[in-house]
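Morning. Coffee machine broken again, so started the prediction first thing and wrote up yesterday's gels while waiting. Chain of 398 residues, entered below exactly as on the submission form.
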Amino acid sequence: MTTKPPNQLPPPLIAWEDVALQPTVWQHLLERYQAGAFNVLKVASLPETLLAIGEGSSHHAATLASQTIQTFLPNQAVRVFKPWMLESLIATHALQTSDEAYCLYLSQSGKTSALLQASNALKIYWQHAPKALGITNADDTTVPLKALCSQCFCLEAGVESAIAATKTFSATVIALCLWSMVNSQATESVKTQFITELEACLPVVEHWLTHLASQPALLSPLVELLISSQTPHSGVVLIGRGATMNVLPEIALKLTETTKQLITFEHSEGFKHGGMAVLNPSLSHQPCLIYCVPVDAVDAAIFYEDATQHLKTFNPTSPQAYPKRLWIRAENAPAIPTNLTVATGQNSVELVLPKTSGLLPQQLMLLVSLQALCYATSTALNLTSVGLEKFIEIPKTP
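Came back before lunch.
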């Protein structure tokens, strides 16, 4: 009888294939939009309030899409909730939302129990079931989510081959944006511009992901700094501002899933108001800071000013005292100021992303790049068995 070796690697937590397939999934959604598949989701009279409700990655997808939704539906108030948050507001009579609100129920599996409970709480609170659109990756007509919704849309993103959702997350974001555009009173030129920007980013993202896969040296310095035992850290803080901020909740979750560390995220200004307490130069283990630089020049200038404040407590004559920093920015974002490049190559490294145009394409480029960082870090930590050879030499199993 054969037995499994005791040091066999665990099953994959995140698969590179799912990350790399995302542009194909996005293209499929655009083709369905152009074929009229979203037209049936048009709401005759959309109420002033939209409630987007989802757990985990679904919640983060609604948060990321909310900026674009608000752009297309400026007369609607978009409120994003996790199910337990919504139930808490209902229980305390603090929801303060008209019973004419329209719900967006988000569940990749179509079976999220917390979402089903929140839906029931809303039904009792309003004394009738609200009109709702369900977005799911489940094509089974019997999934519970479909019974709750006036209409339901299947992402058709394919099966996720890992625990950490990738393509279903970004597909939910794009589906929400396309739904808002179908229900928008925006001019055709505005809608065309959005579609054009999204279509233009597809080959750029696809080429970039192929480049990362074929040139792991691009990510290696970031991974080495993130997991180096020579310069240990006490945790990881993702820092953003403006368009980059809404990408971070999902990436914090993905890094937590793929590195087995507790990862947090913070607004660049908010980090000054409490977060900087962890930047104590007397401590041997500083947190690793991942700075996600906004493309907008005004936002970037303030972002860099905030970063300067973050580091003021450190001695500039002793670069090794500075916390580890990973800088992620697009090539069309303002360059890192000289005063923040101290210890470059030692405990401060940068990854420059290709240029994309438009709010959502910029966010998607940052998203897939950070997903790639999650994948590479997981690989280096031997926490996945998918494509390990790309980033690290795997010890042979006896």
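Residues 208-390 form a domain with the Rossmann fold fold (CATH 3.40.50.10490). Going to sketch it on the whiteboard this afternoon.
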